[in-house]
Amino acid sequence: MHAWPASEVPALPGSGRDLRIHDTATGGRVTLVPGPVARIYVCGITPYDATHMGHAATYNAFDLVQRVWLDTKRQVHYVQNVTDVDDPLLERAIRDGEDWTALAERETALFREDMTALRMLPPRHYVGAVESIPKIVPLVERLRDAGAAYELEGDVYFSVASDPAFGGVSGLDAEAMRLLSAERGGDPERPGKKNPVDPMLWMAARPGEPSWDGASLGPGRPGWHIECVAIALEYFGMGFDVQGGGSDLVFPHHEMGASHAQALTGEHPYAQTYVHAGMVALNGEKMSKSKGNLVFISKLRRDGVDPVAIRLALLSHHYRADWEWTDAVLTEAVERLARWRAAVSRPDGPSADALVEEIRDALADDLDAPRALAAIDRWAAAQAADGGTDEGAPGLVSRAADALLGVAL
Q1: Helix-strand-coil percent breakdown of the chain, rounded to 5?
Q2: DSSP structure string for 154-195
Q3: Among 300, 254, 283, 271, which Cα is nearest to 56's?
Q4: What does the pLDDT look like over 103-152, one tens digit per residue?
Q5: Residues 138-190: pLDDT tens digits?
Q6: Which helix (H) or strand (E) holds 150?
Q7: Which residue, 7, 40, 18, 8, is CA-closest to 360?
Q8: What's the rounded Cα separation, in Å, for the pair 334 and 25?
Q9: How far apart (Å, rounded) are the C-alpha atoms in residues 203 and 211?
Q10: What is the enclosing helix (H) or strand (E) of 343?
Q11: What is the per-residue pLDDT for 283?
Q12: How far is CA 178 from CA 77, 92, 132, 288, 310, in A?
């Protein structure tokens, strides 16, 4: 599966800062000091509907992580998956009377278009669940043969008791896990499971549903969590720098993925740091496909909204915050973009050297994009009020906004 084209990232004078970021697993901030190649895995979409604002907010957060790393002169190895077979996708295809593969391909293509328009840096490897099945099957067999998985009426479940570190990502108690498992695709009430939250690794073939050769597992399809583990272990191995996604993935997805990998390898940790973006709401409720309260990036683009303004709207909220999309949020972003573009269109302006360092400092401080935006606002206001004589300043501001924030002026 191919990703989307990369936009050029301008080079800036000097060098960036190492990123201090909130780690979900420890509950505090850690300083990320990767090697020459920083490794990040961000969980991708299940492509049964178009890219909504919640998706965009998540991928914007991890785009900033990449940009901070690139500014430190590191290379970035970014991997993202596509869950191109899963219950929600199959259910949507049945509802609409559409072939599930056609639905997945169409929505994945639209996602690529939205990411390109928003200037999100693409992953080096963009990998689908279906194409990963030959890698997933041996992992499930290994877990079963090691006693870390068990069969139940033809399905194969992972035993969370097989990982001594289980619970270390989310820090949740058993009852909270059970409730979230039921809410987020698990089946804690199924009789015969060793633990209510044990997740499915391999689903035996169901009538009318797609299935693949599972070797000794029998025909079927993979569970959600093992998909990402197979991909991450293939490209990174254990101990990669950042596992990222929305805060709704902390449990069960990232907790289970970590335990799968740790049980497979006997090593800990799966990822060095777990980073999660907040949720976006509309009309007082979390934006989600199940609720149908979605603001689609593609619709905003069709309505003539500049994608750069959409990106500024995302950046105006801290990545970990839960926030609400409103018309006022977009209006403010459109007005900010107009002010910035007017400011950098002049032939000279106030010196911007200190501004670049302010932006770097803000982003290194747990990706504080709102503080970075406020710094550029001050420069633009000074430009509008008094101007300046530094002929290189407008160009430097434009390059900094592009390189560090992904905002093309």
Answers
A1: 45, 15, 35
A2: TEEEE-GGG-TTTTTTT---HHHHHHHHHHTT--TT-TT-SS
A3: 300
A4: 999 999 999 999 999 999 999 999 999 999 999 999 999 999 999 999 99
A5: 999 999 999 999 999 999 999 999 999 999 999 999 999 999 999 999 999 99
A6: strand 149-152
A7: 18
A8: 37
A9: 9
A10: helix 327-344
A11: 77
A12: 35, 26, 29, 21, 37
- Asked whether 143 and 88 are in contact (CB, 8 A), the reply is no
Within 13 Å of residue 123, how many CA atoms lie on the same side as its CB?
Answer: 25
3-state secondary structure of 322: coil
8 A C-beta contact, residue 287 and residue 53 = yes
Domain ranges in the chain are 19-286, 306-405
In CATH, what number does 306-405 get?
Answer: 1.20.120.640
Collapse the DSSP code of 254 into the 3-class scheme (helix H, G, I; strand E, B; otherwise coil) and give the result.
helix
Q: Give the span between the Cα atoms of 134 and 136, in whole angstroms.
A: 6
Cα–Cα dist 148/58, whole Å: 32
What is the distance between the alpha carbons of residues 391 and 393, in angstroms, rounded to a whole number? 6
Q: Give 172: exposed, middle or buried? Use CB within 10 Å, 0-12, 13-18, 19+.
A: middle
Beta carbons of 44 and 120 less than 8 angstroms apart: no
CB 320 within 8 A of CB 64: no
Tell me: cis bond preceding 222? Omega within 30 of 0 counts: no
User: CB-side exposure of 369: number of CA atoms within 13 Å?
Assistant: 26
Concatenate the DSSP letters of all residues of 188-233 into one string.
TT-TT-SSTTPPEEEEEP-TTS--B--GGG-SEEE-HHHHHHHHHH
Domain 19-286 has what CATH class? alpha beta
Does residue 390 register a pLDDT over 90? yes
Helix (H) or strand (E) run with residue 133 in it: helix 129-145
- Report d(CA 276, CA 245) in Å as an integer: 5
Which residues face 220 on adjacent strands?
204, 212
- CATH fold match for the domains 19-286 and 306-405: no
Q: Among all chains, which residue has been given the structure tokens 């669940």?
A: 129
Contact present, 30 and 241 (Cβ < 8 Å)? no
Closest CA to 163 of 247, 270, 250: 270
pTM: 0.96
User: How far apart (Å, rounded) are the C-alpha atoms in residues 312 and 328?
Assistant: 13
